[in-house]
Automatic annotation (TrEMBL):
GO cellular component: membrane
PROSITE patterns xref list: LRR, PROTEIN_KINASE_DOM, PROTEIN_KINASE_TYR
Pfam families (alphabetical): LRR_1 (PF00560), LRR_4 (PF12799), Pkinase (PF00069)
Catalysed reaction, written as an equation: L-threonyl-[protein] + ATP = O-phospho-L-threonyl-[protein] + ADP + H(+); L-seryl-[protein] + ATP = O-phospho-L-seryl-[protein] + ADP + H(+)
Name assigned to this protein: non-specific serine/threonine protein kinase
EC number, UniProt record: 2.7.11.1
Keywords: ATP-binding, Kinase, Leucine-rich repeat, Membrane, Nucleotide-binding, Repeat, Serine/threonine-protein kinase, Transferase, Transmembrane, Transmembrane helix
Organism, as annotated: Morella rubra
Molecular function as annotated in GO: ATP binding; protein serine/threonine kinase activity
Chain ranges of the Protein kinase domain: 25-362
TM segment ranges: 7-25
Cellular localization per UniProt: Membrane
Record flagged with keyword Thylakoid: no
Protein's UniProt keywords contain ATP-binding: yes
Amino acid sequence: MASAYSFSVVVVAWITYVLLYGIYFNPVHDFAEASQSPTLQLEAEALLETRWWLRSETDNTSSPCKWAETNFRGASRALEIGTLSNLSYLNLPYNSFTGELPHSLANLTQLEELDISHNNIVGTIPKELRNCKSLRTLNLQSNNLIGQIPDMLSSYVSLKKLLLSHNHFTGSIPKRSLFDVLSNNAKVVEFDWNKRVNVIKGIAHALSYMHYDCILTIVHLDISSKNILLDSKLEAIVSDFGTAKFLDLDSSAQTLLAGTYDYIDLELAYTMRITEKCDVYSFGVVVVEILIGRHPTELLTSLASSSISQNVMLNEIFDKRLPPPTRQDAHDIFLVATMTFECLHAKSKSRPTMKSLSQEFLAHKKTILAKPLDAISFWQLISQEVEMVVSGRET
């Protein structure tokens, strides 16, 4: 009798425990009850202030998890990612996210790392993502994204890592060339005189390195405005080495004519003999293009025929889409222009080397023009009849 009574007590206790656990200790029940409580509201507000979203808190490989909400074992609570304005890192790889990238990601202007790789995201990369200019890492690989890679990726100044493989993108990786910038009337104003002079110097330093500092001399043979890329800071990058050749400066080498027609050295076209001076001529054409804002076809024709009017002033030739250069910019422009037209000499032996040009640019001479640019004619420039006072070197 006593044993039967004891058994009954144990059964009743066990049933009571199960019922209590199911009602009061079930996590889903807790979450559902808490969703109506002020405590959860406080937690949600605290989440908005965080700058880190741990992957361990978002892993959910058991069933698809849509962007619109975050699921916890059947219970859900809406969470708009775009409201996390202070978020720096958003790492959500290896989940089962579906749907398109939310346009509200554009609100995450402090975001430095975005990793949504290895999910089932579809659609295109939203253009609004251009607002996330602080991004250092963008990892979208192994999804089902489509469309062209947007040009706005070139606006990411701090981007160090870009992973887009295993998607269904079309077209080429976007690039911004010098030609593109000069052809864009809306944005060319950003390419001011100071930036243009820096681009010219950058190209000169790059070509000098290729000609004189590599183990084997490299001649590019296709320097043009389309093959000079500009990064997000409008600094020059020499690209497209498809026609480049190694050159022994002590030997005579010949080649088939290659390169962009309007930039080819005329002497190379006649002789087919490769020298580093081929790049010097093309560099001169590109520099004039930067200064006047378009390819200098007419100007080069006038130079070749010696039919330049002595009454054409420099300010009439330079790119009129920009405001007149400052006094210091005018000095730099005149110095660059003076050396540039030496690069366009018909005889290659009369042209300067890229090394001498690079060293001249690095010298940082303080020069003062005796006249303003609007009082100097183009004829005086190429004849080097303008007096320049050198006041010393910058320290």
